[in-house]
Design a protein that fits this description.
homodimer, 338 residues, alpha/beta, six-stranded mixed beta sheet, four-stranded antiparallel beta sheet, 10 strands
């Protein structure tokens, strides 16, 4: 853990750090291991345990109490919140997993802001990485999806808060279970992790075992593939950054993001242009929610000057407009505050 | 087929084209469809049917005769050869599939040279693409592997002969079977396609059906992912080309490939540098056989000037040597003729 900690350049002293702890083996092991490093003075940080009760199971209250007591026993402060994720999913139209994820990261970010913590740690493992790569492969995402869970990234493009996964490049889920057992801590089990109505559970219990009959090192192999793709994407993302800079240097706009020069964008290689357009949209809207390839292609039509008008529609009422030799981003007014 | 033909910019007239025909549904359908396009004068090409008998099954002689007769019936010339792939595999240490593939492409290239054909067509389908992507995922190849079968590529980096797969972006295997049935042609069946001792067969019969229980469009989704990765790789390959050019412009060498400037290579982003080194090795040796990440890392050590000497070993006795501010490729002498 300490090696991964240093590799990610996480703060070793004088810093509050949020630890996302569900009470499962992964996050409990992460908490215990960090505690060990603090006890042996190899880390001098102030961990704050954060637990969100998703209200999806009867036992979730007991889990929350268990996590709070464990944090107290170790001498750490904690942040707790209860959210009705079921209701949230109904309201937003997200599925349960999406709604839970959104509520969780929202809570973690608020906790970080409240505690002036610059880093949030989650306990994703190599197994989570492999499952994520396969789920994204099944859903058809490109290189970005297959690059999997990033060991370190900003919470959002504009945020100063870092999300770090110090276990994701090396620890198997079974390692975390074994670690908890050795320390005689009975971690909590989430029955939803056994419920095969969730794709992730079926990937874990059916798809990965079948793949292991081809290659016993499937988990490690998938994690390594994700790592290779991340290296490749770093290069492409840098090129996309440079393209956006080049395209926006030449023109001035009064929109939330700079207008882009049509010729510069049109001449770029397709993979770089699309990546740059996604970055541009993400910067303007805050995220890429519901933004599909079709929307990007719509903007590309504006660039090539093909028939199809001067406006490309984006989800949620946002628009991209072509004005002479540039394209401008138009955010739908009443959504600006979202 | 004609749409794919035009998209790949394959010659529509005055050209000899090698068609690789095993006698299976895929290649038989491709042959019949091309025949239809010739009959209706939408193509004015001279197809040469090429069939390699791998001697792996008792029925393989009958397959060869069947293909020869079909070609004759349609009025096309054909190229035939018989190779004992089993023995070849024993001699070279390749597995059966590798040896078969190597023998087949060798035969196709010789046929193309003999017939002065600039293009070789193979009948890979969407299903082949998906299977290839999964096999490579299982074996742990990076983006290049996952990019799958290229619809069009040079037979080798230095070759003028093109390998084209006009079915691979759109035709399902079942489409080719149905097409043969409609034309009342009883294509040949290869029992090795049902033999679950081959990973490819188990991918087809076990892994893909399980994945289809998550996403019924798994085949199309995997093929689309491969296409997205190919777009990304085009950009990276172009960058690697430019890097090699930049690094080799400055220095002169008397080796098979230009020596490379150490500083220029060391400063490049890792994914581009590794890609460039692979291209450089491939140009010097003719291929990347048995060249692993460890070999590339060995060369990178020469670049960074770390301890570990002035020489990086490559498979088969080839070497890379650092001489002052550049690295040179040294091909093992007696292998030059391979």
């Amino acid at each position: 853990l300490l090696a991964a900690w240093k590799h990610l350049a996480l703060p070793c002293a004088d810093a509050s750090i949020i630890l996302a702890v569900s009470g499962g083996a992964d996050s409990t092991a992460m908490l215990l291991a960090i505690h060990e490093l603090i006890e042996s003075r190899r880390l001098q940080i102030n961990p704050v345990v954060a637990h969100l009760d998703h209200s999806l199971r009867r036992e979730s209250k007991a889990d929350a109490i268990w996590v709070r007591k464990l944090a107290e026993k170790l001498g750490y402060q904690s942040e707790h919140k209860r959210v009705d994720v079921g209701k949230l999913a109904e309201t937003t139209g997200d599925n349960l997993e999406q709604a839970a994820r959104r509520a969780r990261y929202d809570f973690l970010l608020r906790s970080a802001a409240k505690r002036t913590a610059g880093v949030i740690l989650t306990a994703h493992t190599l197994d989570d990485q492999a499952e994520t790569v396969l789920l994204r492969l099944l859903r058809g995402s490109g290189a970005d999806g297959l690059a999997g869970i990033e060991p370190l990234r900003r919470a959002s493009p504009a945020s100063d808060i870092l999300l770090a996964r110090p276990l994701v490049t090396w620890a198997r889920r079974s390692d975390t279970e074994e670690y908890c057992r050795q320390r005689k801590i009975e971690y909590r089990s989430d029955p939803m992790n056994e419920d095969e109505q969730f794709d992730r559970v079926r990937v874990r219990r059916q798809l990965i075992p079948l793949m292991e009959s081809f290659n016993p090192k499937t988990i490690e192999t998938l994690a390594r593939t994700a790592e290779l793709l991340r290296d490749e994407l770093d290069v492409l993302n840098t090129m996309a950054d440079l393209l956006l800079k080049k395209a926006s240097d030449r023109v001035k706009g009064d929109t939330t993001v700079p207008a882009l020069d049509v010729r510069v964008m049109a001449e770029a290689p397709i993979a770089v242009r699309r990546r740059a357009l996604r970055q541009w949209i993400s910067a303007a809207r805050g995220d890429l929610r519901r933004c599909e390839l079709a929307h990007i292609k719509g903007i590309e039509k504006l660039l090539s000057g093909e028939q199809g008008g001067r406006v490309a529609e984006l989800p949620a009422g946002d628009k991209v407009m072509r004005k002479r030799s540039r394209i401008e981003f138009v955010v739908k007014k009443h959504l600006k505050s979202r």
